[in-house]
Amino acid sequence: AAVVARALLGVAVGGVGGWIGASLNDEDGGGDTGGDAAAAESMDAYAPLAEGWADKYDHVTDEAGGDDPNGLAASAEDARLWIEVNREDLGVIAAQAGGDSASLYQELVAIFDERAGLLADVEAIATAGGAGTGAAAAEVAALAELEQRADAVTCSIADVMRAEGDDPADHMTPEMGVVC
Q: What global pTM score does this model have?
């Protein structure tokens, strides 16, 4: 059963990765991006990932406020594995982003990498029996700081979109949890 689940997950991830690559390479025949995607096009690919991350982050912070170490460990592991599964797609978005937004998308990937490390620490603390508001407090606070950094970077990308003549509201969703 585990092998079948992994195979299905691989197919699903491959499908999303292919969609992101096709979207950023404009394989639908719309216009020629020349391999570089404008900030808005990259945000169209990034938004669903940011939405998924927002759900994972909320789950970790909810569990961190409780007294169930198993719930905290499971939520941290789930969020960390989510990053691992989506890391390639995040990298594709950053690699394909062009212009002034390219370095900003690369910074978002670096933030996801930092999140994964902190989540591994939270998982280890919870697995050792840590629970409640004091357990993993420093790591959860560091995750909150990374959320603020990611929001600031995303808002900088919104500024680039405006400079390119796009309306960020057409590309950023409320589910991303970012207010610029």
A: 0.79
Which amino acid belongs to residue 138? Answer: A
Residues 6+ apart with CB under 8 A from 136: 64, 72, 76, 121, 122, 125, 126, 130
For residue range 99-119, list pLDDT tens digits in order: 899 999 999 999 999 999 999
Residue 170 CA to residue 70 CA, distance in Å, equals 40
Quote the Cα angle for 139-66-74, to 5°: 65
Structure-derived torsion over alpha carbons of residues 121, 123, 127, 128, reported in degrees to the nearest 10:
20
CA distances from 73 to 32, 36, 82 (A): 45, 39, 14
Backbone torsion region of residue 31, taken as left when φ is above 0, otherwise alpha when ψ lies between -120 and 50, otherwise beta: beta
Handedness of CA 37, 40, 41, 47 (dihedral sign): positive
Own/partner long-range contacts of 101-104 (Cβ < 8 Å, ≥24 apart): 101/38, 101/39, 101/42, 101/157, 101/160, 101/161, 102/36, 104/39, 104/153, 104/156, 104/157, 104/160
Nearest-angstrom CA–CA distance, 70 and 54: 21
Half-sphere exposure of 135 (CA within 13 A, CB side): 28
